[in-house]
Specification:
The structure is a single chain. It is built from 16 helices and 7 strands. The chain has helices spanning 15-26, 44-56, 58-61, 78-84, 111-122, 143-154, 174-177, 190-199, 204-213, 218-226, 228-246, 249-262, 265-286, 299-308, 311-329, 334-342; strands spanning 5-7, 33-37, 70-72, 91-93, 131-135, 160-166, 181-184. The strands form 2 sheets. A 5-stranded parallel beta sheet has the order 4-5-6-2-7, covered by helices on one side. A two-stranded parallel ribbon has the order 1-3. Helix 9 (204-213) packs across helix 10 (218-226). The structure holds zinc ion.
Length: 345
């Protein structure tokens, strides 16, 4: 059957994974369950979406009636249109729910959510097409949720495809892994992201700075290019960190006070990752590993700080930032956790 399709999958890189999945679509031989794993923002969810969209596309479902090569997903049929609007009835996203009180995402995917999804997929399909379940943060399933999901994996319903997404495979039960087809997603090289950004219309300077800051994650690079405000926010959050490094204790507390008022817990966690990357950059500047630096636009400031701080001090700061992230995930007051971090620099 291959040769009948032209795949329209705008995923940057991940050639091996794409080729394999597309082949299985061409042969009509896809699995019942998949695990896509690898670092965040490198195309796992986008690939899951395109894979789902492609097998639901009517131009794929009716392929045997045509001899002409077809572009899939076609973006024109009813299924594709509904899919694009997020109203296709037979696709189920299982994501962490929002806590009504705090307006933040709950810590886990619960067993109730898994059971509700199972009930839906066990009903006869209204469209008689595939039913697809996507779990974008599979590692967030608690133990009961995992055990409940296992039942689905052990007794799969016909025409159901389950796609789990996780940062590493180690966070999932071996019994779940053994029933999934595993696909490892790799970070991209800087050159791959640089070339992609140039092709999308970025200037050379933009492409260079954004490709470095993206750290192998094309989705991050794309967002920087598409949203100038996001890019400048990224830079200014990093500037706060550098200012904290050279401020007095009293000033540092002011920075933190101001900072926690503007950000949610999830945003603070993301910024801590950024700050860790700046601290690592300072370490890299000390050892003249300039080609590995993420925040190349900070050039002079990195050099300045690389003289001010010892490598032991920086390594200690990075490990305490990691610890602070753990505290924040345990819902410890963010102001308190950050103050504790910056009081000793
Ligand atoms: Zn279509």
């Amino acid at each position: 059957m291959s040769g009948k399709f032209e795949f329209d999958w705008p995923v940057v890189g991940q050639t091996k994974v794409k080729t394999y999945l597309q082949k299985s679509i061409s042969n009509g031989s896809f699995s019942h369950a998949y695990l896509f794993y690898g670092p965040s923002k490198i195309g796992k969810t986008l690939t899951a979406k395109l894979f789902a969209n492609t097998i639901l596309c009517e131009k794929y479902q009716t392929i045997n009636q045509s001899e002409q090569p077809r572009k899939i997903p076609c973006h024109e049929c009813d299924a594709c249109r509904q899919f694009a609007k997020n109203i296709y009835p037979d696709i189920y996203w299982v994501e962490r729910e929002i806590n009504e009180k705090t307006k933040e995402k709950k810590a886990n995917i619960t067993v109730a959510q898994i059971r509700a999804t199972q009930e839906k997929i066990n009903k006869r399909s209204f469209l008689n097409s595939y039913k697809i379940v996507i779990i974008p943060e599979a590692e967030r399933m608690n133990k009961e949720a995992c055990n409940s999901l296992l039942k689905t994996l052990e007794e799969p319903s016909a025409r159901t495809v389950l796609i789990l997404i996780a940062s590493t495979k180690e966070t999932l039960l071996p019994t779940i892994l053994s029933r999934c087809q595993l696909f490892k997603f790799m970070p991209l090289t800087r050159d791959e992201i640089y070339d992609y950004l140039l092709a999308q219309g970025a200037s050379r300077t933009q492409a260079k700075e954004m490709a470095s800051a993206a750290q192998g994650r094309p989705t991050v690079a794309m967002k920087f290019l598409a949203d100038a405000e996001k890019w400048s926010q990224y830079k200014s959050d990093n500037s706060v960190f550098l200012e904290i490094l050279s401020a007095s204790v009293v000033e540092r507390f002011k920075y933190i006070d101001d900072f926690v008022q503007k950000k949610t817990n999830e945003e603070i966690l993301a910024v801590l990752d950024q700050w860790m990357s700046v601290a690592r950059d300072i370490l890299l500047a000390q050892t003249y590993n300039n080609e590995m630096i993420s925040n190349i636009y900070l050039d002079e400031l990195l050099k300045k700080n690389s003289i001010r701080f010892s490598s032991d001090k920086l390594a200690d700061l990075i490990s305490r930032m990691e610890q602070t992230k753990k505290y924040l995930r345990q819902n410890i007051n963010s102001k308190f956790a950050l103050e504790n971090l910056i009081i000793n620099i």
